[in-house]
Amino acid sequence: MVIEKQFADGLKSIARNLDIKEYIQQSPELYPLFQKSVKRFVTGESKEDGISIGDQLIHKGYRISLEFIGENTITKEECVRAKEEFIALMKECGNRGISSRISLDLSHIGLSVNPELAYESLLELAKVAQSNGLSLMISMEESAKTDQILSIYKRVVSEYSNVGVTLQAQLHRTLDDINELFNYSGAIRLVKGAYQEPSDICIPRSDKLDERYIQLVDLCVKANHQVSIASHDEVIYKQVIERGYLQNPNVEAEMLYGIRPDLSKKLKDDGLAVRVYLTYGVEWYLYLCHRIAEYPPNIYIAITDMIQG
Ligand code: FDA
Protein backbone atom coordinates (compact mmCIF):
# COMPACT_ATOMS: atom_id res chain seq x y z
CA MET A 1 0.00 0.00 0.00
CA VAL A 2 2.85 2.35 0.95
CA ILE A 3 4.73 1.46 -2.23
CA GLU A 4 1.58 2.03 -4.33
CA LYS A 5 1.11 5.45 -2.76
CA GLN A 6 4.78 6.33 -3.35
CA PHE A 7 4.42 5.24 -6.97
CA ALA A 8 1.26 7.34 -7.41
CA ASP A 9 2.93 10.36 -5.78
CA GLY A 10 5.95 9.87 -8.06
CA LEU A 11 3.71 9.83 -11.15
CA LYS A 12 1.91 12.96 -9.93
CA SER A 13 5.17 14.80 -9.44
CA ILE A 14 6.35 13.87 -12.97
CA ALA A 15 3.00 14.98 -14.39
CA ARG A 16 3.03 18.28 -12.48
CA ASN A 17 6.42 19.14 -13.92
CA LEU A 18 5.43 18.16 -17.42
CA ASP A 19 5.72 21.07 -19.82
CA ILE A 20 4.03 19.96 -23.02
CA LYS A 21 4.52 23.40 -24.58
CA GLU A 22 8.29 23.08 -24.21
CA TYR A 23 8.28 19.59 -25.76
CA ILE A 24 6.27 20.86 -28.70
CA GLN A 25 8.54 23.88 -29.19
CA GLN A 26 11.60 21.64 -29.18
CA SER A 27 10.02 18.99 -31.39
CA PRO A 28 7.26 20.52 -33.55
CA GLU A 29 6.70 17.15 -35.25
CA LEU A 30 5.05 16.06 -31.95
CA TYR A 31 2.29 18.70 -32.35
CA PRO A 32 -0.12 16.52 -34.38
CA LEU A 33 0.39 13.63 -31.95
CA PHE A 34 -0.50 15.76 -28.93
CA GLN A 35 -3.44 17.17 -30.85
CA LYS A 36 -4.80 13.64 -31.25
CA SER A 37 -4.64 12.97 -27.53
CA VAL A 38 -6.09 16.31 -26.52
CA LYS A 39 -9.27 15.80 -28.56
CA ARG A 40 -10.65 13.69 -25.73
CA PHE A 41 -10.51 16.64 -23.31
CA VAL A 42 -10.68 19.81 -25.44
CA THR A 43 -13.35 20.55 -28.06
CA GLY A 44 -10.96 22.27 -30.52
CA GLU A 45 -9.09 25.50 -31.06
CA SER A 46 -11.97 27.84 -31.96
CA LYS A 47 -15.14 29.02 -30.24
CA GLU A 48 -17.18 27.37 -33.03
CA ASP A 49 -15.76 24.01 -31.85
CA GLY A 50 -16.84 24.68 -28.25
CA ILE A 51 -20.27 26.03 -29.19
CA SER A 52 -21.03 23.23 -31.63
CA ILE A 53 -20.17 20.41 -29.17
CA GLY A 54 -21.93 22.35 -26.39
CA ASP A 55 -25.05 22.63 -28.53
CA GLN A 56 -25.05 18.86 -29.12
CA LEU A 57 -24.76 18.24 -25.36
CA ILE A 58 -27.62 20.63 -24.61
CA HIS A 59 -29.78 18.67 -27.05
CA LYS A 60 -28.89 15.50 -25.12
CA GLY A 61 -30.13 17.09 -21.89
CA TYR A 62 -26.95 18.46 -20.30
CA ARG A 63 -26.22 21.98 -19.09
CA ILE A 64 -22.89 23.38 -20.25
CA SER A 65 -19.99 25.58 -19.19
CA LEU A 66 -17.66 26.98 -21.85
CA GLU A 67 -14.11 28.17 -21.31
CA PHE A 68 -11.61 29.79 -23.64
CA ILE A 69 -8.40 28.25 -22.27
CA GLY A 70 -5.75 30.52 -20.82
CA GLU A 71 -4.14 31.55 -17.56
CA ASN A 72 -1.34 33.69 -16.18
CA THR A 73 -1.44 36.11 -19.10
CA ILE A 74 1.32 38.59 -18.50
CA THR A 75 0.83 41.48 -20.91
CA LYS A 76 -2.07 43.91 -20.95
CA GLU A 77 -2.54 43.39 -24.70
CA GLU A 78 -2.98 39.62 -24.29
CA CYS A 79 -5.46 40.19 -21.43
CA VAL A 80 -7.50 42.55 -23.60
CA ARG A 81 -7.43 40.02 -26.46
CA ALA A 82 -8.65 37.30 -24.07
CA LYS A 83 -11.45 39.55 -22.81
CA GLU A 84 -12.48 40.27 -26.41
CA GLU A 85 -12.58 36.55 -27.19
CA PHE A 86 -14.86 35.99 -24.18
CA ILE A 87 -17.11 38.83 -25.39
CA ALA A 88 -17.25 37.34 -28.91
CA LEU A 89 -18.04 33.91 -27.39
CA MET A 90 -20.89 35.32 -25.31
CA LYS A 91 -22.36 37.29 -28.20
CA GLU A 92 -22.27 34.17 -30.38
CA CYS A 93 -24.02 32.14 -27.65
CA GLY A 94 -26.58 34.95 -27.29
CA ASN A 95 -27.21 35.12 -31.07
CA ARG A 96 -27.66 31.36 -31.30
CA GLY A 97 -29.84 31.16 -28.17
CA ILE A 98 -27.33 28.89 -26.43
CA SER A 99 -27.70 28.93 -22.67
CA SER A 100 -24.25 28.48 -21.15
CA ARG A 101 -22.18 29.30 -18.15
CA ILE A 102 -18.89 30.94 -19.16
CA SER A 103 -15.89 29.86 -17.06
CA LEU A 104 -12.71 31.83 -16.77
CA ASP A 105 -9.51 32.33 -14.80
CA LEU A 106 -8.98 35.89 -13.57
CA SER A 107 -5.27 35.50 -14.38
CA HIS A 108 -6.34 35.13 -18.02
CA ILE A 109 -7.94 38.58 -18.06
CA GLY A 110 -5.54 40.67 -15.99
CA LEU A 111 -4.87 39.36 -12.48
CA SER A 112 -1.20 38.66 -13.19
CA VAL A 113 -0.76 42.15 -14.68
CA ASN A 114 -2.77 44.22 -12.22
CA PRO A 115 -5.79 43.16 -10.09
CA GLU A 116 -7.65 46.34 -11.08
CA LEU A 117 -7.43 45.28 -14.75
CA ALA A 118 -8.96 41.89 -13.82
CA TYR A 119 -11.74 43.65 -11.88
CA GLU A 120 -12.59 46.02 -14.76
CA SER A 121 -12.50 43.21 -17.33
CA LEU A 122 -14.72 40.99 -15.19
CA LEU A 123 -17.19 43.81 -14.69
CA GLU A 124 -17.42 44.33 -18.45
CA LEU A 125 -17.79 40.59 -19.08
CA ALA A 126 -20.53 40.31 -16.43
CA LYS A 127 -22.48 43.05 -18.20
CA VAL A 128 -22.17 41.35 -21.61
CA ALA A 129 -23.10 38.00 -20.02
CA GLN A 130 -26.19 39.52 -18.46
CA SER A 131 -27.36 41.07 -21.71
CA ASN A 132 -26.97 37.68 -23.44
CA GLY A 133 -28.76 35.71 -20.72
CA LEU A 134 -25.56 33.98 -19.58
CA SER A 135 -23.73 33.49 -16.29
CA LEU A 136 -20.01 33.66 -15.46
CA MET A 137 -18.05 31.34 -13.19
CA ILE A 138 -14.64 32.36 -11.88
CA SER A 139 -12.17 29.47 -11.49
CA MET A 140 -10.03 29.28 -8.37
CA GLU A 141 -6.28 29.37 -8.89
CA GLU A 142 -3.36 28.70 -6.52
CA SER A 143 -3.69 29.82 -2.89
CA ALA A 144 -1.43 32.85 -3.37
CA LYS A 145 -4.27 34.31 -5.46
CA THR A 146 -7.29 33.29 -3.34
CA ASP A 147 -7.68 36.60 -1.47
CA GLN A 148 -7.44 38.66 -4.65
CA ILE A 149 -9.88 36.43 -6.54
CA LEU A 150 -12.46 36.47 -3.74
CA SER A 151 -12.13 40.21 -3.30
CA ILE A 152 -12.70 40.87 -7.03
CA TYR A 153 -15.61 38.39 -7.04
CA LYS A 154 -17.31 40.18 -4.12
CA ARG A 155 -17.00 43.58 -5.80
CA VAL A 156 -18.44 42.33 -9.08
CA VAL A 157 -21.21 40.08 -7.70
CA SER A 158 -22.49 43.03 -5.70
CA GLU A 159 -23.44 44.55 -9.07
CA TYR A 160 -24.05 41.42 -11.17
CA SER A 161 -25.63 38.39 -9.53
CA ASN A 162 -24.95 36.27 -12.63
CA VAL A 163 -21.31 35.85 -11.49
CA GLY A 164 -20.20 32.90 -9.34
CA VAL A 165 -16.92 31.65 -7.93
CA THR A 166 -15.12 28.34 -7.38
CA LEU A 167 -13.96 27.24 -3.92
CA GLN A 168 -11.42 24.49 -3.19
CA ALA A 169 -12.40 22.06 -0.43
CA GLN A 170 -8.73 21.18 0.10
CA LEU A 171 -7.90 24.58 1.62
CA HIS A 172 -8.56 24.87 5.38
CA ARG A 173 -9.67 28.48 4.87
CA THR A 174 -12.60 27.42 2.66
CA LEU A 175 -14.79 26.68 5.70
CA ASP A 176 -14.62 30.37 6.63
CA ASP A 177 -14.74 31.59 3.02
CA ILE A 178 -17.92 29.66 2.22
CA ASN A 179 -19.80 31.08 5.19
CA GLU A 180 -18.74 34.57 4.14
CA LEU A 181 -19.80 33.93 0.54
CA PHE A 182 -23.33 33.00 1.61
CA ASN A 183 -23.78 36.76 2.05
CA TYR A 184 -23.42 37.14 -1.74
CA SER A 185 -25.92 35.89 -4.28
CA GLY A 186 -23.54 34.30 -6.82
CA ALA A 187 -23.37 30.53 -7.35
CA ILE A 188 -20.56 28.52 -5.77
CA ARG A 189 -18.72 25.79 -7.64
CA LEU A 190 -17.15 23.37 -5.20
CA VAL A 191 -14.00 21.47 -6.28
CA LYS A 192 -11.46 19.44 -4.31
CA GLY A 193 -8.62 21.59 -5.68
CA ALA A 194 -6.12 20.97 -8.47
CA TYR A 195 -3.07 22.78 -7.07
CA GLN A 196 -0.30 21.36 -4.93
CA GLU A 197 -0.36 23.52 -1.80
CA PRO A 198 1.78 23.66 1.38
CA SER A 199 0.66 20.97 3.86
CA ASP A 200 -0.12 23.48 6.63
CA ILE A 201 -2.92 25.11 4.61
CA CYS A 202 -4.28 22.13 2.78
CA ILE A 203 -5.93 18.71 3.27
CA PRO A 204 -4.40 16.17 0.86
CA ARG A 205 -6.58 13.72 -1.13
CA SER A 206 -7.97 11.45 1.61
CA ASP A 207 -11.18 10.40 3.36
CA LYS A 208 -10.75 13.54 5.46
CA LEU A 209 -10.89 15.70 2.32
CA ASP A 210 -14.00 13.84 1.12
CA GLU A 211 -15.63 14.49 4.53
CA ARG A 212 -14.75 18.17 4.30
CA TYR A 213 -16.17 18.28 0.76
CA ILE A 214 -19.49 16.82 1.91
CA GLN A 215 -19.52 19.16 4.92
CA LEU A 216 -19.21 22.11 2.53
CA VAL A 217 -22.02 20.77 0.32
CA ASP A 218 -24.20 20.36 3.46
CA LEU A 219 -23.56 24.00 4.34
CA CYS A 220 -24.53 25.19 0.84
CA VAL A 221 -27.75 23.19 0.89
CA LYS A 222 -28.69 24.39 4.40
CA ALA A 223 -28.02 27.97 3.28
CA ASN A 224 -30.23 27.43 0.17
CA HIS A 225 -27.27 28.54 -1.89
CA GLN A 226 -26.77 27.56 -5.53
CA VAL A 227 -23.91 25.03 -5.73
CA SER A 228 -22.21 22.95 -8.42
CA ILE A 229 -20.74 19.67 -7.21
CA ALA A 230 -17.72 19.74 -9.51
CA SER A 231 -16.15 16.32 -9.12
CA HIS A 232 -15.69 12.98 -10.89
CA ASP A 233 -15.62 11.06 -7.64
CA GLU A 234 -18.28 8.35 -7.29
CA VAL A 235 -17.78 8.36 -3.50
CA ILE A 236 -18.84 12.01 -3.40
CA TYR A 237 -21.83 11.45 -5.71
CA LYS A 238 -22.99 8.42 -3.69
CA GLN A 239 -23.22 10.56 -0.56
CA VAL A 240 -24.77 13.53 -2.34
CA ILE A 241 -27.41 11.26 -3.93
CA GLU A 242 -28.12 9.50 -0.60
CA ARG A 243 -28.84 12.91 0.91
CA GLY A 244 -31.23 13.67 -1.98
CA TYR A 245 -29.27 16.81 -2.85
CA LEU A 246 -29.22 16.35 -6.63
CA GLN A 247 -33.02 16.64 -6.61
CA ASN A 248 -32.67 20.09 -5.05
CA PRO A 249 -33.01 22.79 -7.76
CA ASN A 250 -30.06 24.68 -6.21
CA VAL A 251 -27.69 21.75 -6.70
CA GLU A 252 -26.14 20.31 -9.87
CA ALA A 253 -23.29 17.99 -10.80
CA GLU A 254 -20.53 19.40 -13.00
CA MET A 255 -17.87 17.38 -14.79
CA LEU A 256 -15.10 18.08 -17.26
CA TYR A 257 -15.67 17.12 -20.89
CA GLY A 258 -14.07 13.76 -21.66
CA ILE A 259 -13.72 12.71 -18.02
CA ARG A 260 -16.04 10.00 -16.67
CA PRO A 261 -18.62 10.51 -19.47
CA ASP A 262 -20.19 7.23 -18.28
CA LEU A 263 -20.87 8.76 -14.86
CA SER A 264 -22.22 12.06 -16.19
CA LYS A 265 -24.54 10.17 -18.59
CA LYS A 266 -25.80 7.91 -15.82
CA LEU A 267 -26.63 10.87 -13.58
CA LYS A 268 -28.30 12.71 -16.46
CA ASP A 269 -30.28 9.61 -17.50
CA ASP A 270 -31.45 9.33 -13.87
CA GLY A 271 -33.03 12.76 -14.37
CA LEU A 272 -30.43 14.70 -12.35
CA ALA A 273 -28.99 18.07 -13.35
CA VAL A 274 -25.54 17.63 -14.92
CA ARG A 275 -23.34 20.32 -16.40
CA VAL A 276 -20.44 19.50 -18.73
CA TYR A 277 -17.45 21.85 -18.70
CA LEU A 278 -16.12 22.33 -22.22
CA THR A 279 -12.94 24.10 -23.23
CA TYR A 280 -11.43 25.36 -26.46
CA GLY A 281 -8.38 27.34 -27.47
CA VAL A 282 -4.89 27.15 -28.90
CA GLU A 283 -3.36 26.89 -25.44
CA TRP A 284 -4.83 23.37 -25.04
CA TYR A 285 -1.49 21.98 -23.81
CA LEU A 286 -2.02 23.88 -20.50
CA TYR A 287 -5.30 22.10 -20.04
CA LEU A 288 -3.82 18.70 -20.93
CA CYS A 289 -1.06 19.25 -18.33
CA HIS A 290 -3.67 19.98 -15.62
CA ARG A 291 -5.70 16.86 -16.45
CA ILE A 292 -2.60 14.64 -16.36
CA ALA A 293 -1.32 16.23 -13.14
CA GLU A 294 -4.60 15.67 -11.28
CA TYR A 295 -4.99 12.10 -12.52
CA PRO A 296 -1.71 10.59 -13.81
CA PRO A 297 -3.36 7.55 -15.47
CA ASN A 298 -4.54 10.09 -18.07
CA ILE A 299 -0.97 9.98 -19.39
CA TYR A 300 -1.58 6.39 -20.57
CA ILE A 301 -4.90 7.40 -22.14
CA ALA A 302 -3.10 10.27 -23.92
CA ILE A 303 -0.40 7.93 -25.25
CA THR A 304 -2.99 5.36 -26.39
CA ASP A 305 -4.91 8.11 -28.22
CA MET A 306 -1.67 9.18 -29.92
CA ILE A 307 -0.87 5.66 -31.09
CA GLN A 308 -4.39 4.68 -32.11
CA GLY A 309 -5.23 8.10 -33.56
P1 FDA B 1 -10.32 12.92 -7.08
O1 FDA B 1 -9.16 13.64 -7.68
O2 FDA B 1 -10.26 12.61 -5.64
O3 FDA B 1 -10.53 11.59 -7.88
C1 FDA B 1 -11.55 10.66 -7.52
C2 FDA B 1 -11.82 9.72 -8.67
O4 FDA B 1 -12.42 10.46 -9.76
C3 FDA B 1 -10.58 9.10 -9.28
O5 FDA B 1 -10.19 7.94 -8.57
C4 FDA B 1 -11.03 8.81 -10.69
O6 FDA B 1 -11.84 7.66 -10.70
C5 FDA B 1 -11.89 10.01 -11.01
N1 FDA B 1 -11.11 11.11 -11.63
C6 FDA B 1 -10.75 12.25 -11.03
N2 FDA B 1 -10.08 13.06 -11.90
C7 FDA B 1 -10.01 12.38 -13.05
C8 FDA B 1 -9.44 12.66 -14.31
N3 FDA B 1 -8.80 13.80 -14.59
N4 FDA B 1 -9.54 11.73 -15.27
C9 FDA B 1 -10.19 10.56 -15.04
N5 FDA B 1 -10.77 10.25 -13.86
C10 FDA B 1 -10.68 11.13 -12.88
N6 FDA B 1 -9.66 22.88 -9.58
C11 FDA B 1 -9.20 24.06 -9.10
O7 FDA B 1 -8.26 24.08 -8.30
N7 FDA B 1 -9.78 25.24 -9.50
C12 FDA B 1 -10.85 25.26 -10.34
O8 FDA B 1 -11.36 26.34 -10.66
C13 FDA B 1 -11.35 24.04 -10.83
N8 FDA B 1 -12.43 24.00 -11.67
C14 FDA B 1 -13.02 22.78 -11.95
C15 FDA B 1 -14.24 22.74 -12.61
C16 FDA B 1 -14.87 21.51 -12.82
C17 FDA B 1 -16.20 21.47 -13.52
C18 FDA B 1 -14.28 20.30 -12.35
C19 FDA B 1 -14.97 18.98 -12.51
C20 FDA B 1 -13.07 20.35 -11.71
C21 FDA B 1 -12.41 21.57 -11.52
N9 FDA B 1 -11.19 21.62 -10.87
C22 FDA B 1 -10.72 22.85 -10.42
C23 FDA B 1 -10.39 20.39 -10.66
C24 FDA B 1 -10.65 19.79 -9.28
O9 FDA B 1 -10.10 20.59 -8.27
C25 FDA B 1 -10.03 18.40 -9.17
O10 FDA B 1 -8.66 18.47 -9.35
C26 FDA B 1 -10.61 17.40 -10.15
O11 FDA B 1 -11.99 17.52 -10.27
C27 FDA B 1 -10.31 15.97 -9.64
O12 FDA B 1 -10.89 15.79 -8.39
P2 FDA B 1 -12.19 14.90 -8.17
O13 FDA B 1 -13.13 15.59 -7.27
O14 FDA B 1 -12.74 14.55 -9.48
O15 FDA B 1 -11.71 13.63 -7.34
From TrEMBL:
Protein's name according to its UniProt entry: proline dehydrogenase
GO MF annotation, one: nucleotide binding
Enzyme class: oxidoreductase
Source lineage: Bacteria, Bacillati, Bacillota, Bacilli, Bacillales
Source organism (scientific name): Oceanobacillus arenosus
Cited PANTHER family: PROLINE DEHYDROGENASE 1, MITOCHONDRIAL, PROLINE OXIDASE
Residues engaged in binding FAD: 140, 168, 192-194, 231-232
GO biological process per UniProt: L-proline catabolic process to L-glutamate
Pfam families: Pro_dh
